[in-house]
Amino acid sequence: xxxxxxxxxxxxxxxxxxxxxxxxxxxxxxxxxxxxxxxxxxxxxxxxxxxxxxxxxxxxxxxxxxxxxxxxxxxxxxxxxxxxxxxxxxxxxxxxxxxxxxxxxxxxxxxxxxxxxxxxxxxxxxxxxxxxxxxxxxxxxxxxxxxxxxxxxxxxxxxxxxxxxxxxxxxxxxxxxxxxxxxxxxxxxxxxxxxxxxxxxxxxxxxxxxxxxxxxxxxxxxxxxxxxxxxxxxxxxxxxxx
Length: 242
Known about the structure:
Blueprint: E1 2-5, E2 12-15, H1 30-45, H2 60-68, H3 71-74, H4 79-93, H5 103-115, H6 120-139, H7 146-152, H8 171-180, H9 183-195, H10 199-203, E3 210-211, E4 216-217, H11 236-241
Helix pairs in contact: 2-4, 4-6, 5-6, 6-7, 8-9
Protein backbone atom coordinates (compact mmCIF):
# COMPACT_ATOMS: atom_id res chain seq x y z
CA UNK A 1 0.00 0.00 0.00
CA UNK A 2 1.36 3.43 -0.93
CA UNK A 3 0.04 6.98 -1.10
CA UNK A 4 0.50 9.57 -3.84
CA UNK A 5 -0.85 12.99 -4.81
CA UNK A 6 -3.43 12.98 -7.58
CA UNK A 7 -2.33 15.60 -10.17
CA UNK A 8 -5.97 16.15 -11.16
CA UNK A 9 -7.46 16.96 -7.76
CA UNK A 10 -4.39 17.61 -5.63
CA UNK A 11 -5.74 15.14 -3.08
CA UNK A 12 -3.71 12.34 -1.56
CA UNK A 13 -4.84 8.90 -2.73
CA UNK A 14 -4.05 5.41 -1.49
CA UNK A 15 -3.33 2.48 -3.81
CA UNK A 16 -2.96 -1.21 -3.06
CA UNK A 17 -0.81 -3.43 -5.30
CA UNK A 18 0.06 -7.11 -5.35
CA UNK A 19 3.69 -8.20 -5.25
CA UNK A 20 2.87 -10.42 -8.22
CA UNK A 21 3.17 -7.31 -10.40
CA UNK A 22 6.86 -6.99 -9.52
CA UNK A 23 9.42 -9.14 -11.32
CA UNK A 24 11.84 -11.24 -9.25
CA UNK A 25 9.95 -10.61 -6.00
CA UNK A 26 8.40 -13.25 -3.78
CA UNK A 27 4.71 -12.51 -3.19
CA UNK A 28 4.97 -14.11 0.28
CA UNK A 29 8.15 -12.39 1.43
CA UNK A 30 7.98 -9.50 3.90
CA UNK A 31 11.48 -8.48 2.82
CA UNK A 32 10.40 -8.25 -0.84
CA UNK A 33 7.25 -6.40 0.17
CA UNK A 34 9.44 -3.74 1.79
CA UNK A 35 11.54 -3.54 -1.37
CA UNK A 36 8.44 -2.97 -3.47
CA UNK A 37 7.18 -0.32 -1.05
CA UNK A 38 10.54 1.46 -1.10
CA UNK A 39 10.49 1.46 -4.90
CA UNK A 40 7.04 3.04 -5.04
CA UNK A 41 8.02 5.57 -2.35
CA UNK A 42 10.99 6.61 -4.46
CA UNK A 43 8.79 7.01 -7.53
CA UNK A 44 6.35 9.16 -5.53
CA UNK A 45 9.20 11.33 -4.27
CA UNK A 46 10.57 11.77 -7.80
CA UNK A 47 7.08 12.48 -9.22
CA UNK A 48 7.30 9.37 -11.42
CA UNK A 49 4.43 7.48 -9.83
CA UNK A 50 2.02 8.30 -12.68
CA UNK A 51 4.27 6.25 -14.97
CA UNK A 52 3.22 3.02 -13.23
CA UNK A 53 -0.50 3.70 -12.81
CA UNK A 54 -3.04 2.11 -15.24
CA UNK A 55 -3.70 5.39 -17.07
CA UNK A 56 -0.05 5.56 -18.06
CA UNK A 57 -0.37 2.59 -20.43
CA UNK A 58 -4.00 2.75 -21.61
CA UNK A 59 -4.37 3.08 -25.38
CA UNK A 60 -7.19 4.77 -27.27
CA UNK A 61 -8.40 1.37 -28.50
CA UNK A 62 -8.66 0.10 -24.91
CA UNK A 63 -10.41 3.28 -23.82
CA UNK A 64 -12.85 3.01 -26.73
CA UNK A 65 -13.75 -0.58 -25.80
CA UNK A 66 -14.67 0.64 -22.30
CA UNK A 67 -16.54 3.72 -23.54
CA UNK A 68 -18.69 1.91 -26.12
CA UNK A 69 -19.90 -0.57 -23.49
CA UNK A 70 -21.24 2.14 -21.16
CA UNK A 71 -25.05 1.80 -20.87
CA UNK A 72 -25.43 5.58 -21.07
CA UNK A 73 -23.62 5.59 -24.42
CA UNK A 74 -25.15 2.43 -25.90
CA UNK A 75 -28.69 3.76 -25.49
CA UNK A 76 -28.01 6.92 -27.52
CA UNK A 77 -29.69 7.19 -30.92
CA UNK A 78 -26.34 8.48 -32.20
CA UNK A 79 -24.47 5.35 -31.02
CA UNK A 80 -23.73 4.05 -34.56
CA UNK A 81 -22.33 7.47 -35.48
CA UNK A 82 -20.21 7.58 -32.31
CA UNK A 83 -18.84 4.13 -33.06
CA UNK A 84 -18.03 5.10 -36.65
CA UNK A 85 -16.22 8.29 -35.58
CA UNK A 86 -14.12 6.42 -33.02
CA UNK A 87 -13.26 3.76 -35.60
CA UNK A 88 -11.89 6.47 -37.89
CA UNK A 89 -10.02 8.09 -35.00
CA UNK A 90 -8.53 4.80 -33.86
CA UNK A 91 -7.33 4.00 -37.37
CA UNK A 92 -4.67 6.60 -36.57
CA UNK A 93 -4.45 6.68 -32.76
CA UNK A 94 -5.72 3.24 -31.71
CA UNK A 95 -2.34 1.99 -30.43
CA UNK A 96 -1.37 5.36 -29.00
CA UNK A 97 -1.15 5.84 -25.21
CA UNK A 98 -4.00 8.22 -24.30
CA UNK A 99 -1.85 10.39 -22.05
CA UNK A 100 0.75 10.94 -24.79
CA UNK A 101 -1.58 12.77 -27.20
CA UNK A 102 -0.61 16.37 -28.03
CA UNK A 103 -2.57 19.22 -29.64
CA UNK A 104 -0.25 19.03 -32.67
CA UNK A 105 -1.15 15.35 -33.13
CA UNK A 106 -4.82 16.25 -33.30
CA UNK A 107 -4.20 19.15 -35.66
CA UNK A 108 -2.22 16.84 -37.97
CA UNK A 109 -5.11 14.37 -37.81
CA UNK A 110 -7.51 17.10 -38.90
CA UNK A 111 -5.31 18.03 -41.85
CA UNK A 112 -4.85 14.39 -42.84
CA UNK A 113 -8.59 13.70 -42.78
CA UNK A 114 -9.25 16.82 -44.85
CA UNK A 115 -6.73 15.66 -47.46
CA UNK A 116 -8.55 12.32 -47.57
CA UNK A 117 -11.70 14.19 -48.60
CA UNK A 118 -13.62 14.04 -45.30
CA UNK A 119 -16.09 16.90 -44.74
CA UNK A 120 -15.00 19.51 -42.21
CA UNK A 121 -18.10 18.83 -40.11
CA UNK A 122 -17.19 15.12 -40.05
CA UNK A 123 -13.61 15.87 -39.01
CA UNK A 124 -14.79 18.12 -36.18
CA UNK A 125 -17.30 15.51 -35.03
CA UNK A 126 -14.63 12.80 -34.86
CA UNK A 127 -12.39 14.96 -32.69
CA UNK A 128 -15.30 16.11 -30.51
CA UNK A 129 -16.51 12.55 -29.89
CA UNK A 130 -12.99 11.33 -29.09
CA UNK A 131 -12.59 14.30 -26.75
CA UNK A 132 -15.88 13.49 -25.05
CA UNK A 133 -14.68 9.94 -24.47
CA UNK A 134 -11.46 11.25 -22.95
CA UNK A 135 -13.33 13.62 -20.62
CA UNK A 136 -15.60 10.76 -19.53
CA UNK A 137 -12.55 8.68 -18.63
CA UNK A 138 -10.97 11.62 -16.81
CA UNK A 139 -14.13 12.23 -14.80
CA UNK A 140 -13.97 8.59 -13.69
CA UNK A 141 -10.26 8.73 -12.71
CA UNK A 142 -9.19 6.39 -15.51
CA UNK A 143 -6.68 8.82 -17.05
CA UNK A 144 -4.92 12.01 -16.03
CA UNK A 145 -5.64 15.47 -17.42
CA UNK A 146 -2.95 15.64 -20.12
CA UNK A 147 -5.18 14.27 -22.89
CA UNK A 148 -8.11 16.45 -21.80
CA UNK A 149 -5.98 19.57 -22.18
CA UNK A 150 -4.84 18.47 -25.65
CA UNK A 151 -8.42 18.19 -26.91
CA UNK A 152 -9.39 21.52 -25.33
CA UNK A 153 -6.69 23.37 -27.29
CA UNK A 154 -7.73 22.08 -30.71
CA UNK A 155 -9.99 24.36 -32.77
CA UNK A 156 -12.77 23.21 -35.08
CA UNK A 157 -12.06 23.17 -38.80
CA UNK A 158 -15.57 24.29 -39.70
CA UNK A 159 -16.38 27.91 -38.95
CA UNK A 160 -19.74 28.70 -37.38
CA UNK A 161 -22.40 29.06 -40.07
CA UNK A 162 -20.09 27.86 -42.86
CA UNK A 163 -22.24 24.80 -43.53
CA UNK A 164 -25.56 26.65 -43.43
CA UNK A 165 -28.05 25.59 -46.12
CA UNK A 166 -28.03 27.94 -49.10
CA UNK A 167 -31.26 26.67 -50.67
CA UNK A 168 -34.27 24.48 -50.03
CA UNK A 169 -35.87 21.82 -52.18
CA UNK A 170 -38.37 23.41 -54.55
CA UNK A 171 -41.90 22.02 -54.99
CA UNK A 172 -41.21 20.91 -58.60
CA UNK A 173 -38.05 19.11 -57.42
CA UNK A 174 -40.00 17.49 -54.61
CA UNK A 175 -42.77 16.32 -56.96
CA UNK A 176 -40.23 14.93 -59.42
CA UNK A 177 -38.47 13.03 -56.64
CA UNK A 178 -41.73 11.55 -55.37
CA UNK A 179 -42.68 10.42 -58.87
CA UNK A 180 -39.55 8.32 -59.42
CA UNK A 181 -39.04 7.06 -55.86
CA UNK A 182 -39.83 3.45 -54.90
CA UNK A 183 -42.79 2.98 -52.56
CA UNK A 184 -40.90 2.77 -49.27
CA UNK A 185 -38.59 5.66 -50.21
CA UNK A 186 -41.59 7.69 -51.41
CA UNK A 187 -43.18 7.42 -47.96
CA UNK A 188 -39.99 8.71 -46.33
CA UNK A 189 -39.66 11.58 -48.81
CA UNK A 190 -43.27 12.72 -48.36
CA UNK A 191 -43.15 12.47 -44.58
CA UNK A 192 -39.76 14.17 -44.33
CA UNK A 193 -40.65 17.02 -46.71
CA UNK A 194 -43.97 17.77 -45.06
CA UNK A 195 -42.88 17.47 -41.43
CA UNK A 196 -39.25 18.63 -41.46
CA UNK A 197 -38.26 15.49 -39.54
CA UNK A 198 -34.60 14.50 -39.65
CA UNK A 199 -33.34 11.25 -41.14
CA UNK A 200 -32.75 9.67 -37.73
CA UNK A 201 -36.22 10.64 -36.58
CA UNK A 202 -37.80 9.12 -39.68
CA UNK A 203 -35.84 5.87 -39.62
CA UNK A 204 -36.43 5.32 -35.90
CA UNK A 205 -40.15 6.14 -35.95
CA UNK A 206 -42.27 3.56 -34.08
CA UNK A 207 -45.99 2.93 -33.77
CA UNK A 208 -45.87 4.16 -30.18
CA UNK A 209 -44.92 7.61 -31.54
CA UNK A 210 -48.11 7.85 -33.61
CA UNK A 211 -51.14 9.42 -31.93
CA UNK A 212 -53.94 8.15 -34.19
CA UNK A 213 -56.68 9.78 -32.16
CA UNK A 214 -55.19 13.26 -32.55
CA UNK A 215 -53.60 12.54 -35.96
CA UNK A 216 -50.18 13.59 -34.66
CA UNK A 217 -46.62 12.31 -34.53
CA UNK A 218 -45.12 12.60 -31.05
CA UNK A 219 -41.34 12.29 -31.06
CA UNK A 220 -39.79 11.47 -27.65
CA UNK A 221 -36.78 13.41 -26.39
CA UNK A 222 -34.31 10.54 -26.92
CA UNK A 223 -35.14 10.51 -30.65
CA UNK A 224 -34.53 14.19 -31.42
CA UNK A 225 -31.27 16.05 -31.92
CA UNK A 226 -32.33 18.69 -29.39
CA UNK A 227 -33.09 16.00 -26.78
CA UNK A 228 -36.53 17.51 -26.31
CA UNK A 229 -39.97 16.09 -27.21
CA UNK A 230 -41.16 17.29 -30.59
CA UNK A 231 -44.54 17.52 -32.35
CA UNK A 232 -43.85 17.77 -36.12
CA UNK A 233 -46.43 19.60 -38.19
CA UNK A 234 -48.60 16.96 -39.88
CA UNK A 235 -50.59 17.66 -43.03
CA UNK A 236 -53.42 15.46 -44.27
CA UNK A 237 -51.15 13.81 -46.86
CA UNK A 238 -48.60 12.99 -44.17
CA UNK A 239 -51.17 11.33 -41.92
CA UNK A 240 -52.42 9.24 -44.83
CA UNK A 241 -48.89 8.05 -45.60
CA UNK A 242 -48.12 7.24 -41.94
